[in-house]
What does this fold into?
Amino acid sequence: WHTSVKAQNLAREGRAAMSVDVPEPPYAYLLVEGPVTIIDDPEESRRVATAAGSRYMGAERADEFGRRNGVSGELVVRIHIDHFVGADDMTA
It folds into this structure.
């Protein structure tokens, strides 16, 4: 949300880091870092929210999720990766 502390920090710093992990064996993780582009566009927000809704809620609820979450004030943040580190199959 455009007034959140996270949005304010992203705008001020211009950089972000994000990590993703697989918490069950064989375990894996990825950390990405880089500058960000903040997009304050309801149409782009709706497009991203609809795609997320399709993935996580199913195609039949994607449009509903996109309409509810793709509104003015919702931001899309793109990380332009300039550094990453990760590991796969950490049980080996």
Q: What stands out?
A: Residues 42-57 form the longest helix (16 residues). The first strand starts at residue 15 and ends at 22.
